[in-house]
Amino acid sequence: MIKYVIVLLAGAIAGGFAGNTIAHRLAEPHQHPRAVMTLMGFHRERLDAASQAGQCATVEAERARIALLQQEIALAFPLTYKQEERFRKSADGLGNVLQSIAAAAPATAATNCPEAKAQFKKMNDSCDDCHKVYDPE
Fold first, then answer.
1. Cβ atoms within 10 A of the Cβ of 69, count?
2. Are 134 and 87 in contact (CB under 8 A)?
3. pTM of this prediction?
4. What contacts 74, CB < 8 A, 6 or more positions away?
5. How confident is the model at residue 68, as a pLDDT?
6. Which end of the chain is more exposed for a tag (fewer CB within 10 A), N or C?
7. Domains along the sequence of the chain with CATH
8. Which pairs count as long-range contacts for 102-109, CB under 8 Å and 24+ apart, including other chains?
9. Is pLDDT above 50 for 91?
10. 137, 62, 136, 73: which is closest to 102 by C-alpha?
11. Residue 108: its pLDDT value, please?
12. What confidence category does residue 29 fall into, taking pLDDT thresholds of 50, 70 and 90?
């Protein structure tokens, strides 16, 4: 009887290790897309808070970070970006919005950013358009 308990316990431990290894292997390909979206969400929240508080220097820094991350979307979702025109248009549309905001920003943006809230809404709307279709949750 004790032999069966030991064998059963050893099998359960081995199965746990094997299951854990398999789960990690299956999750690896999804780390980059998840990281990009997590970082974009983090910086979007910081941009929102900075635009609400009128912290112009932070607004510019966060907008620049989001623009860099936007360029990472095609690398994080290569097949979707290549095969789905709607996704590609959404991702490129966010880039266009960010470029137009940067081009419209006055040279004194670090001290005067009255447009920050409107610009944040424009950028956020662009993100929402994509997430209406491609949100994983």
1. 21
2. yes
3. 0.71
4. 81, 91
5. 92
6. C
7. 32-134 (1.20.120)
8. 102/63, 102/67, 105/60, 109/56, 109/59, 109/60
9. yes
10. 62
11. 44
12. low
